[in-house]
Fold:
Amino acid sequence: MTTTLDTTTTPTGGPGGAPRGSVVGRVRDAFRRNTTLVNIVGLLVAIVLLYLYLMFNAVGFFTVANQSGLLRDAALIGVAATGMTLVIIAGEIDVSTGPAVALSSVIVAVAMTQWGLPALVAILITLVVGAGWGALAGLLRARFLVPSFIATLGLWSVLRGLGQFSTDALPVPLPLDEPIMPFLAGSVLGIPTPAVVMIVAFLVFAYVARKTAFGRSVFAVGGNAAAARLAGIKVKRVRVVLFAITGLLGALSGVLLAARLGSGNAGAANGLEFDVIAAVVIGGTAMSGGRGSLIGTFLGVIFITLIGNGLVLLGVDSFLQSVVRGVIIVLAVLLNVTLSRKRGSMEES
Amino acid sequence: MSESTDPVPPPSLDPELERDAPIAEARGVSQVYPGVTALDDVDFSVRAGEVRALLGQNGAGKSTLIRLLSGVETPSGGEVLLGGVPLGSGGVAAAAAAGVATCYQELSLVPGVTVAENLALGRWPRGRFGIDGRAMVERARATFERLGADIDVHAEVAGLTLAQQQIVEIGRALQDDPRLLILDEPTSALAAAEVDLVLDTVKRLAAQGVAVLYVSHRMDEIRQIADTATVMRNGKIVETVSIAGSDTAHIIELMIGADPEERGVATRPVTSGEVLLSVTDLDVGPKLRGVSFEGRAGEVLGIAGLLGSGRTELLQAIAGFRPLTAGTLAIAGSVVERPTASRMLSLGVGMTPEDRKGRGVIPGLGIDENIVMSDFGRVTRGGALSSGAIGTATRALAERLSIKAHDLSRPISTLSGGNQQKAVIARWLHADSRVLLLDEPTRGVDVEAKAQIYEIMRAVADTGKLVVFVSSEIEELPLACDRVLVLRDGGLREEFRAPDISLPVLLQASMVSS
Structure:
């Protein structure tokens, strides 16, 4: 047996390791083996503390209206964050989320109001178009080796411009006598519909990430693209599909946003991509690819949404809010990176 | 102890005297790494204007000797003298100041900038307004004039041929006006036709009084340029011979020594199995021309050849990762019209890459996942990956290949090199590939794991598959192969069948044009 083998196959090895079998030992063991667990527990604690603090200090925080608003805010970030998690795990990035959501809200509104299409058809068209421009960015990355940051930055500009050009930057109202959009803006069993959509999206993508060949290929491509290719994984296809997914989810968020606002807005969702990316990274997904989890992202979304909501309720100056938010996000990521690095070095020792 | 500030002996001493004094000398140097003695009490010296070949098998100590002479490492025993002055622990800077320049195998040029700028990197000539572009160009021109090489100093390095890039690398080494130039396999990346450019350059430098230490195993090249050859084995210098006075068989004998009996596996000529792989008149890029061979079910087929002989290119072409310039591939009798990677994969061709760390494993993923990723379909139940099926499949493979791991879901990076390699091989057993192409599967693994890998190859072949085994450690091939093909001078030159495969004949065939 080699020494490498010895240290790595002894589950509770290392200095200070509690005896195998004891509860403490098992918990410590689980933490050591699983970075994701460290992130998740850490985030959960942070969220609970934040929640309790706001409950007792922020006037109007613990009201039905605010809680429901929180969930709607979370959904706007969360739906897009599911796909973004996979994109970042694959070692890529998509910065086009904000404009994609805005333009989608315009498309669905225009399709219903100006083209007179039924809501379901309009929604379907919007989703297909969104997946289409996502796939285009993916193709640029996979086939023509344009870095995904640049490809989606270009898309960002094109989509924002298209939306404002086609609407003169004016809201496009939805038709009033129509049942589906109000349903999307409403609630199911007391839970806002967008939040239900978000939860479904997280469940679906957690399943995809863990239990499907596509999901595992995403991890492989992000962990070592050259090795994945040599192992027979179709790297290009994985990349194109990934960006098609983020495009589709952006469009879905756009539809939900249009329903909530009652109109399509080319200027909406400004800077949304930053919240989405921050949520994913706070959730423990590595920007370098190969590592991450949907549950982490979910908690990241809740964390970010709570901070945004709390700062408003605490009456922090709106310009200062950005500063505080920025600092908190960077600190959260820093903590996360430090925790996982500590774990990594234990493994190598 | 010498410091990097020590004065360099002026180059303009009495020329006669200088010719006799060694430019670089190692006195009784030893270098011990944890668990290995890489160099054992070695005496070595080289004089001005001399071209010295350095020969020896992998692990003989060539690289260690080079690293000591160029100051990358400090010997654990003995001392290195440059121009008669001890180098001590002065490091690379002191060695460079004393006139040692080294070109390593991997080119270290910046591809996106011009030749002139590459020569000036880090020592840009300063003018009144920042970098003096004209002086930079002039200096580069003068360098290539000295080398007698026709290279456009305004050209971007990325646009040059590999041989030209190698000359630029040598040109850069000359910027410090070295008295000893160490070239580590400078022609290994070059196609046969380009080699002369480098050899001419070396001859010209030697004529100007620069000592050249030339690491290579291509006897034809060595005979063209070197006066003497130092042969190393097991961390010692066996002998320094005059090239003119020794035939190649003698040099090979010195390299091998008394062959210790190594444990191999039972090999035998295979003539009856189905022809699984058939390669006809294959051309691959500039490296390989007219390669034809067949491989049969049940066979372990070795491919021998020096560094740069096109071994890896051949395997990559067969696996569909490198376009064929000409020729055809047939798997189990049917010709593959457009061999792409996914096509070859579906036909049952699997390749393990030579760079295990960089291109073989996905370090953060589990051992099990690294195995099943070649074919997720086999462990999918009802549209989803089944952890039960993954566990069953990978446990069976781990047992079959004796992968030592208590928990297969642990990251593969927690395994030793040998066990990682076995997992990468297991990947293709999982995909049930019929043709396994193993590029350097034993690189960087311990002796026990090596023997296990030979056994695995044998056992896999015995289940009716073809195993193609590439190794730069030629001495491995007789231990494991039923048949060995030798690549040399851009093509397949010779073939040996068990039991007539031995190290001397393989080395001879790899090193010398017949």
The two ends of chain B are 50 Å apart (CA to CA). Chain B touches chain A at residues 321, 341-342, 345, 350-351, 353, 358-365, 369, 373-377, 380, 383-385, 404-407, 410-411, 413-416, 418-419, 427, 431, 446 (CB under 8 Å). The mean pLDDT of chain B is 87.
